[in-house]
Amino acid sequence: MTLTPSIQSTAIIYPDSDGQPMADNTQQFGWITKLKEGCEALFKDDPNVFVAGDFLWYPLKGDNVTRRAPDVMVVLGRPKGDRGSYKQWEEDNIAPQVVFEVLSPGNRLTEMALKLQFYDRHGVEEYYLYDPDSNQLTGWQRSATTLAVIDPINGWVSPRLGVRFDLTEQTLEVIRPDGQRFLSYLELEEQRNQLAQERDRLAAKLQALGIDPNQL
Asked: Mean pLDDT, consecutive 10-residue segments, the chain of 216 residues?
């Protein structure tokens, strides 16, 4: 009697976490959230732009080792919505077009070189690396088949996002096409409070003139 061994196919597991912390310090975390939320706000009315922060990207089907978790990534042409990870073959094989990384003191030169190599190999069109400690921004844009350094970077306008990068003496400002800056939640709250105070002052002036502001 001849026994035929059964062949079992083992499903490949693509973990949703790499076990690494999102940020090494509060400054890095603040910048990651500002860039991620700023990009989300920029495309809030476009249902086909997916933005994520510290999110695993698997570019190759059947390979759960080749992966990266960009601090922020923007994918134009893919719908918004929750995902455990970005499996490119399930997303019309569209690679993230724009990636941001925010440096921390714990980042090693080798690690950052490997990230650049990964983004270059797997089709990223624009890659921006910001070091908040030294206030230095470096950018790369795809030219032909490779990522080439953007020089000069100060005042550069992203072809994909339409935002402008302005380096002041103190910090990086990311300026939207409408002229508004990317803001942190605290900055947005302060802005709302200022507008509310201005509204209250104007209402008080109108009332002093005998005008009911609620009737305007």
From this structure: 46 85 83 96 97 96 96 98 96 98 88 95 97 96 94 97 97 96 77 67 70 71
Q: What is the 3-state secondary structure (H, E, C) of the chain?
A: CCCCCCCCCCCCCCCCCCCCCCCCCHHHHHHHHHHHHHHHHHCCCCCCEEEEECCCEECCCCCCCCCECCCEEEEECCCCCCCCCEEHHHCCCCCCCEEEEECCCCCCHHHHHHHHHHHHHCCCCEEEEEECCCCEEEEEEEECCEEEECCCCCCCECCCCCCEEEECCCCEEEECCCCCECCCHHHHHHHHHHHHHHHHHHHHHHHHCCCCHHHC
- pTM of the shown model: 0.84
